[in-house]
Amino acid sequence: MQKPKPTKPDISVLSVEPKYIDKFWPLCDFMIAEALKYSGGFAEPRDIKDLLKKDEAQLFLVFGSDEEELNQVFALFVTRIAALPNYSQLEAIVCTGRKRHLWEDKIVNTVTKFAKLNGCKKLSFWVRPGWSKVSKKWGWKAKHIQMEKDL
Hints:
- Strands 1-2-3-4-5 form a five-stranded mixed β-sheet, with helices on both faces.
- Helices cover 32% and strands 28% of the residues.
- Helix 1 (21-36) packs antiparallel against helix 2.
- By secondary structure, it is α+β, with helices and mostly antiparallel strands.
- It is built from four helices and five strands; from the N terminus they run E-H-H-E-E-E-H-E-H.
- The protein has helices at 21-36, 45-53, 100-117, 130-134; strands at residues 10-16, 58-65, 72-83, 88-97, 120-125.
């Protein structure tokens, strides 16, 4: 039997509409639960699902194939549009995944385009420190850091 040939990476980003959240949730639930463990406990996965279903947040799924895996979910972003007094901004409230090198450019381009289409003037992402190493290539600047202490 011949060994299967490796595939060329083929990655896509899907913006999931609120009416399809239940359908896609089994692909997301465990990833969101894992990400929330590192996010200070601000929400439970069911809270995120409710925000998505009410169209108060947006879900972007990153899926595809690489040299090793076919038809996989590699990452997801959950964003929300914050209407601030002087402008709106797109905020990433959950960002998680693996093999970031495969999808980082596509997700940044996708959410940037989404933000512009929705009248946002800025992107504001709360992400883990690893993103600061790669974000400069997209023109990001570290303006603040978040310090945290539990009481």
